[in-house]
Specification:
Distance between the termini of chain A: 53 Å
Structural class of chain A: alpha/beta
Radius of gyration of chain B: 21 Å
Number of helices of chain B: 11
Helix content of chain B: 25-40%
Number of strands of chain A: 9
Strand order of the largest sheet of chain B: 2-1-5-6-7-8
Largest sheet of chain A: 7 strands, mixed
Number of helices of chain A: 16
Structural class of chain B: alpha/beta
Oligomer: heterodimer
Order of helices and strands of chain A: HEHHHEHHHHHEHEHEHEHEHHEHE
Number of strands of chain B: 14
Low-confidence stretches of chain B: none
Order of helices and strands of chain B: EHEHEEEEHEHEEHEHEHEHEEHHH
Radius of gyration of chain A: 55 Å
Helix content of chain A: 40-55%
Largest sheet of chain B: 6 strands, parallel
Shape of chain B: globular
Mean pLDDT of chain A: 79
Strand content of chain B: 15-25%
Chain lengths: ~500, ~350
């Protein structure tokens, strides 16, 4: 997260803001001053609103209200209470019969209940006079005319009132505008919501389709795996030439997981039984220096399922297996064997001089480039103790069937290695007592019957040993290496 | 105790002074006292309004209101400290600076002189009546001694949110938070950016009347890729701006106190200040917790370059500054016990 000179000040500030956003603060920035919104209830000019409570009113203040609101206000202002249902109904009826509002105000302000509140309604004087005069029959018509004249004069709104009225209308208009705007906003929000829901629905549909697709794929895979299991379940020697199949494991190119699995399956299908393999390997124990002489450490390259390592352990050797197939490694580890998934050459280079008594590789060298084989052999020479043994077993191409056919059962085989090359390699790298051991000829019943030279020749090339092993030893008395010898 | 705290109020203008006044009130209440604030509405012009307020304050008897006795009055600002009370503690935030240390910079000095004389006489008279006289900082105390011949004890208080400052590995920028005003001298740092040889950025935090001017200065000097004006920033952003800075620059002219110095120290950042900066000089130790430079762009640029090229040293200086802050024992409880002490 270093913020260095390559950053613009804006990028720096953005990084600072991002970090600040993660701080937990109780107090947050002081808000930008915003004008306080008008409370909803403050809508002016509402015909149901109540007048403020005061001691003096002018009767004109009661005129703008609807009939019902007028009665509510009259009770509220003069009697300081809500109208009782009877009172309300009664006064409403009278209003509808044409009784003037001032009359009602006058009645209310004169009634006994109103007296303790002492509220005055101005402008009712003329009404009082009129009421009194009305009782005198003679002057009644005159009084009526006088009063209607008075009303015409007195009820003309003053300039102030016109202003107020206009202001109130404007307020109402702006309040209506506000309401319309709010409605529009909420409508827009609803529209927005519904389009969002539409989008969400489409997205869900897509997800559903994708899930369906994945489900179908998984079903397909499960079916395939079941097929594989059926194929891998125990079966005896499905390959005709099972004995020739290598017990060791090469590195599947590129560590490809599918290939590794294939190879395990291939080997499982083609290898012999555990006992058969042990029996075949048993003979090599005799080729090794006894475990109590100097080092008792053995390296097996391409250890596969570890039959040979087990044999060695039983015979008292301390073993290391290397295999590049992770499935093989985990299988060996599960048996308690010391097996690594590592590069052989690198491992060899880490070992001290003369620290191993044997290095073995059964059916491995045909899987690797020759340059690598040369390096292994050279490094093994250094690591092996004096008199230590190097064993490479590989398919024998002297047998024409092996060289031309069975060798290629294994798709990871590169090329056959001839006995001549093996022997020269050992000598070149400084081993002596190099020995080539030919193994596993075809059974006698496979041979062509007869003993003439041609038949011998045919049998030799077609039914002879299918495997060959190089057994090479380091010189027994190597004076230069003496001080380096590690005793176990 | 029943305590009154007096101060000014300038409607709709809020800043460090409000934090100071409210902070004191809260601290006094926490200490178990009954406290109320009395705030006098104040405006800088016309001077006649200030004269009227001085007269008004001096006429106020705060010893009792409607039979409720006030135990002590604590005044923080001119001209509120003119009110009368037998146990009046004055903790001067600052005097009316325009007629004191800033007088020489005033455009209409001659017309202002009678007013200056009146304010000085007022301060001499009313502050002499105070039972105890404290100053917000040694800088304020020094001015009081120089202009009024009065002795005040410096009394420091912590900046707002003191416990929330933190320190993080520095990014390559210098932080200078302050209102963008002439007296704060952002122009010095902008000018210094031209002399920098280190690839550090300058972040000027805050808003103020000089914003257009400083913006123009940055553009004209071609420093838009080096100097950034953040404008208003949030409280959380403040802590991070401090925490990630390589150093904090605070080089105003004759600052009274200056929370910025303390906030930088709390964030363990070195402070670069100037020899005439007032308040910050009471805290920054040259070469130990920051640098004190002459108020010249080249010198400031050199200090920044040094810190950039010696980052570990910059980090150490910041740590030393934080340790120094804690040594000074700056806290509200310390303020309360000093203000109310009776001996």
């Amino acid at each position: 997260m270093k913020k260095d000179a390559t950053q613009t000040p804006e990028q720096l500030l953005a990084a600072i803001r991002a970090e600040a956003a993660t701080l937990e603060l109780k107090t947050q920035p002081e808000p930008e001053p915003v004008p306080a919104p008008l409370p909803e209830s403050a809508d002016a000019g509402d015909a149901t609103a109540l007048l403020p409570r005061k001691q003096r009113y002018h009767y004109r203040e009661f005129i703008p209200f609807s009939e019902e609101a007028f009665i509510h206000n009259a009770f509220h202002c003069i009697l300081r209470r809500e109208p009782d249902p009877t009172g309300l109904a009664d006064y409403l009826a009278r209003l509808r019969q044409g009784v003037a509002r001032p009359t009602i105000l006058l009645e209310l302000s004169r009634c006994e209940e109103a007296q303790p509140h002492g509220v005055t309604i101005r402008g009712l004087f003329a009404y009082r006079v009129f009421h009194k005069l009305q009782r005198v029959r003679v002057v009644r018509p005159l009084a009526r005319r006088a009063f209607s004249l008075y009303r015409r004069i007195s009820e003309q709104p003053s300039a102030d009132e016109i202003h107020q009225f206009r202001a109130s209308i404007l307020q109402q208009l702006s309040s209506f505008a506000g309401r319309i705007r709010r409605n529009e906003q909420s409508q827009a929000a609803l529209l927005d919501q519904s389009s969002q829901q539409q989008n969400r629905f489409t997205a869900l549909q897509q997800q559903y389709q994708q899930l369906n697709q994945r489900f179908a794929n998984i079903n397909h895979k499960i079916a395939y795996q079941q097929q594989q299991w059926a194929r891998l379940s125990p079966r005896e020697h499905p390959c005709g030439q099972a004995e020739t199949a290598p017990p060791a494991t090469p590195s599947p190119p590129g560590g490809d997981g599918d290939l590794a699995a294939f190879y395990v399956a291939f080997e499982d299908a083609c290898r012999g039984s555990r006992e058969a393999i042990r029996a075949k390997l048993q003979r090599w124990l005799e080729a090794l220096p006894p475990p109590h002489q100097a080092s008792n450490r053995v390296l097996d390259i391409g250890c596969g399922r570890g039959e040979w390592l087990q044999l060695l352990n039983e015979a008292g050797y301390v073993t290391t297996g290397i295999d590049t197939n992770p499935l093989m490694v985990s299988s060996c580890t599960a048996q308690g064997l010391n097996v690594l998934d590592t590069d052989t050459l690198a491992w060899l280079k880490q070992q001290p001089d003369a620290s191993l008594c044997a290095i073995t590789a059964f059916h491995v060298i045909e899987h690797i480039p020759f340059a690598q084989l040369l390096r292994w052999t050279t490094e093994a020479r250094r690591v092996l103790q004096p008199g230590g043994v190097l064993i490479y077993e590989t398919p024998n191409p002297e047998n024409i069937l092996v060289g031309s056919h069975t060798f290629y059962h294994d798709p990871t085989h590169r090329n056959p290695i001839t006995p001549t090359l093996l022997a020269f390699l050992a000598e070149y790298c400084g081993y002596d007592q190099t020995e080539l051991v030919r193994l596993h000829p075809y059974p006698d019943e496979a041979r062509v019957s007869g003993s003439d030279p041609l038949t011998e020749r045919v049998n030799g090339h077609l039914c002879g040993p299918q495997d060959i092993a190089l057994v090479a030893r380091t010189p027994a008395a190597a004076p230069a290496a003496d001080e380096e010898v590690v005793t176990a | 105790m029943k305590l009154l705290v007096t101060a000014c109020q300038v409607p709709f203008i809020h800043g460090g002074a409000d934090y100071h006044i409210d902070g004191l009130t809260t601290a006094l209440r926490r200490a178990g006292h009954q406290v109320e604030q009395v705030r006098f509405p104040f405006k800088f012009t016309p001077t006649s309004s200030i004269e009227a307020l001085m007269r008004h304050c001096e006429q106020q008897d705060f010893s009792a209101f409607n039979g409720i006795e006030i135990d002590k009055v604590i005044s923080l600002q001119f001209p509120g400290y003119g009110v009368r009370h037998p146990d009046h503690r004055v903790w001067i935030m600052h005097q009316h600076r325009a007629v004191y240390e800033l007088f020489e910079q005033q455009p209409n000095r001659e017309r202002l002189r009678p007013f200056k004389d009146e304010v000085t006489a007022y301060d001499n008279r009313v502050l002499a009546r105070a039972a105890r006289l404290f100053a917000n900082s040694a800088t304020v105390a020094r001015r009081l001694r120089r202009f009024n011949g009065l002795t005040a004890r410096p009394l420091y208080h912590p900046p707002p949110g003191a416990e929330r400052f933190y320190c993080a590995p520095p990014w390559d920028y210098i932080f200078f938070p302050s209102r963008l005003e002439t007296l704060k001298r952002q122009s010095l740092l902008i000018e210094a950016a031209r002399h920098l040889d280190a690839p550090v950025r300058i972040i000027l935090g805050g808003t103020g009347g000089q914003e257009p001017h400083y913006r123009k200065q940055i553009e004209q000097a071609g420093l838009s890729d080096k100097v950034l004006l953040t404008g208003r920033f949030s409280e959380a952003e403040k802590y991070t701006l401090y925490a990630r800075a390589l150093a904090v620059f605070f080089g105003p002219f004759e600052e009274d106190y200056g929370y910025i110095t303390l906030e930088a120290m709390l964030s363990a950042k070195p402070v670069i200040t100037c020899t005439d900066s007032g308040g910050p000089l009471e805290f920054v130790r040259d070469g130990e917790t920051g640098y004190i430079c002459p108020p010249e762009p080249e010198a400031i640029a050199a200090a920044i370059d040094t810190l950039y090229h010696n980052k570990n040293r910059a980090i150490d200086m910041g740590q030393a500054g934080r340790a120094h802050y804690h040594q000074r024992n700056i806290s509200w409880s310390q303020v309360v016990s000093s203000l109310l002490a009776d001996n």
